[in-house]
Design a protein that fits this description.
With about 475 residues, the protein is an all-alpha fold. Helices cover about 80% and strands about 0% of the residues.
Length: about 475
Amino acid sequence: MQIHLLDLSIFVLYMIAMIGVGIYFMRKNKSNEDYFVGGRNMSAGHIGLSVVATDVGGGFSIGLGGLGFVMGLSGSWMLFSGLIGAWLSVVFLIPKIYPIAKKHQFLTFPETLNFHYNKKVALVAGIISLIGYIGFTSSQILAGAKLASATFPNFTIKEAALLMGVIAVVYTVIGGIKAVIYTDTIQWMILMVGLCFIGIPIAYFKIGGWDVIQQSLPAEFLSFTNVSWLTLFNWLITIVPIWFVGMTLYQRIYACRDEKTAKKAWKIAGLFEWPVMAFMGVILGMFARVAFNQGMFTGIGYAPGSEMDAELGLPLLLTTVLPIGFIGLMMSAYFSAIMSTADSCLMAASGNFMTDILGYFKGEGKYNQVRLSQFVTLIIGALAIVLATMMQNVLDLMLYSYAFMVSGLLVPVLGALICKKPSSKAALIAMILGGGTTLILILSKIELPFSLDANFFGILIATISFIVVQNYSNYKQKTWQN
């Protein structure tokens, strides 16, 4: 399968345009406040679209396509947890976090923990967030690589990962958060238009319409109950909490011009996650399954009944059914979604290193400069590209990264929101034991009871340790006062 010169030209022009946005905003970055939180004057529309573009992005788009391919409409429930997380944040998180962040000019999520606890807690939180977002950036680069290798057969997945990674890293390094947010808005609009008016309608008619879909798919694919309660629970405990600990999300809260803007942006983001993006992703995955069953992929090496990576179904469908010109537009749309998440995660990881880790050891002053921030972003981006070339499954890599951050950071955040005088020692122990437990369980690949995610046990250990140490600290304080 050869890509037409017109499609390739559209794709290349799009990539050049994204780098152009980065160059435009490079001149506007005068300080780390400009680079990391956009001068704190962004609108709800830009922030809301940027949030959903970052959270759903290409990784979840490709991952949702894979879920639609293997389970049908029930795969959409994954992003329902995103809607819950966004709206819970509107009620519980933003009202408490935004006023403090505005007053103290926070740049990162761990600075909030520093305010409620101490610098050591913020340092450990910065390390956990940095590791998690390097993994998450890698998952997006891998998603782009899968899409590129399916679209451009001359590229291997590793070669495509290098190409995608370099482009995303370059415009993020030079442009900072404003380049990220504005490119997110552009990218999300391209993806929505591409899916609504190009991808879904053309694919629907090419595979034969509703009657063929019903005949080609098992009945459970058209049901919302083709998923176990355990799977739903694992999605909920992994995805909902990320709205309370995600550095990319805190950066956007800080970048809003006021608290009302932040709340409005999060409401917009929640609705775009579910039902809008959730159903678009799984529906295209289902269409890909129909095309596969009909033998439409036989000419490119995937005959009906053969083994195929479910996450390749969606890009193979688009490159098979779309006419010349539209392939370039649709591929640009999906690469848009992928890079909109990769750039945000890269900015988050860079902010963690600069403010929470380097800032802890070196302090402010000469280290708090845009050029050093750009260099750090470049190095972290390179590490993410290397990791992407070593992994295979996009959704697994994303959920592992989420799980590690959530199990290490959720309990201290809840402690800060609930407790009047949260213990720094309790937060520190909870982060180390919670994140460490999840990481060990993931790396050791131990079969866990009831098929629960490692994340569940990490959160459980973190919660128990926090409660024990917090109560002990309260007891000591009362004893000392008496």
